[in-house]
Task: inverse folding
DNA sequence: GATGTGTCTTTTGCCTACAGTCCACGGCGC
DNA sequence: GCGCCGTGGACTGTAGGCAAAAGACACATC
């Protein structure tokens, strides 16, 4: 166990490495897009972004490529990158897929969940409810994301998790205005879901998760009017 | 209808545009990977590939980035790209997701399908059976892909289609040896599936598609022994 | 003989530079 | 005045080049 140095485990502060520049650019741009700082349809000029971020065009290009494969930007050949414009139809389809993935995750979680995992879920749920009670909207949204992530983790399917993470992030982008509104009801549904998982009731877990995400869809369409 | 030029429709050979170089490199590499010309775990050196393809390193880099987002290669920082090594667990998870996506597609197709679409499906099915009868394995595999693609098209969910296409391609990579074996049974299942879609029976279509892809999983595991 | 160290090579990460392409604007003919 | 063509600017696509990091190997040391 490398005892030769005699240094305690945490003595070396791990020498924080900034990581590849392209990844940081990617995250920066994604942040700018999701926060609406870069608006849908906007033309993203490589040299501009590069100058603004203090890097060269190359990392920016690579970040844009990646963003385009995940449909955050549309990359028209010889014309550049444009922030993707959400469509009504697309939002709907995306939500359908999300429902599908989350429901399957719930089913798998119900099939595999152990006692300690369920305790963790309930803790997350409690914290979420506390955030709602305190009118901490950002906190509630964050806890919601963590709860869903935990369920996905319990499902134990990494491929599914990766897909769901991507879809989820985009859904959140489309539905940010909506997500903030439905605080209260969402968490009572979460309780039911955890109960179903605890009971190992796969069918009920699936059904609840389906209904849960479908509610989001309804709220979106009601808001349209 | 633009009669000013007086040229017949097909006179201009569409001015074949090669398209961005990175895309062609991407497709070339993907082809090399799926055909096992580049073996799993192999270290892909940018300058080598660039020289071999007759282009500079930049398009190769961009292609590799894209391949890495789709998990065809693993991109270790400061170390380069390595062809992804399939795992037993991963193959299983991937197939689970595929089952999920295809089953949903079948359900949606059953919900939306029109008469003319069903005719198209049956034609594809007939052609597939003919290929099997003629021992045309490659043809049968191709028709299989087209049939599934058609069903996905009928589902009318582009987001779902895109995801399924990616998952499918990787599944095919993992399961190529298997796919060639199960010719006959596969097509009788297809017939049943079309029947269910024709009858607008969403539940039956889902169930059949589930069973259909699950059979693939079984064959894979039997082959292991 | 085993271990640690220094150097050397290879390969990536990033930057800069040049060529090709598309769009917009203005002039020209009708 | 209206439409078409040519020209200019801006941006992307691609290439080449340099510095830094990671791995390999030989050598010195214990």
Result:
């Amino acid at each position: 166990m490398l005892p030769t140095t005699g240094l305690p485990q945490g003595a070396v502060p791990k020498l924080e490495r900034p990581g590849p520049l392209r990844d940081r650019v990617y995250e920066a741009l994604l942040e700018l897009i999701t926060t609406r700082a870069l608006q849908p349809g906007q033309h993203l000029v490589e040299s501009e972004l590069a100058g603004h971020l203090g890097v060269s065009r190359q990392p920016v290009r690579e970040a844009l490529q990646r963003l385009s494969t995940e449909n955050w930007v549309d990359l028209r050949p010889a014309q550049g990158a444009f922030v993707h414009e959400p469509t009504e139809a697309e939002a709907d389809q995306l939500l359908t897929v999300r429902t599908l993935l989350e429901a399957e995750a719930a089913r798998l979680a119900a099939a595999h969940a152990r006692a300690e995992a369920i305790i963790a879920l309930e803790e997350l749920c409690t914290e979420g409810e506390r955030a709602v009670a305190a009118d901490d909207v950002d906190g509630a949204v964050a806890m919601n994301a963590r709860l869903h992530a935990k369920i996905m983790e319990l499902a134990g399917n990494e491929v599914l998790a990766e897909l769901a993470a991507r879809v989820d992030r985009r859904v959140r982008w489309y539905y940010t205005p909506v997500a903030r509104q439905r605080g209260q009801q969402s968490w009572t549904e979460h309780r039911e879901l955890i109960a179903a998982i605890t009971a190992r009731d796969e069918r009920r877990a699936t059904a609840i998760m389906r209904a849960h995400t479908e509610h989001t869809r309804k709220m979106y369409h009601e808001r349209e009017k």
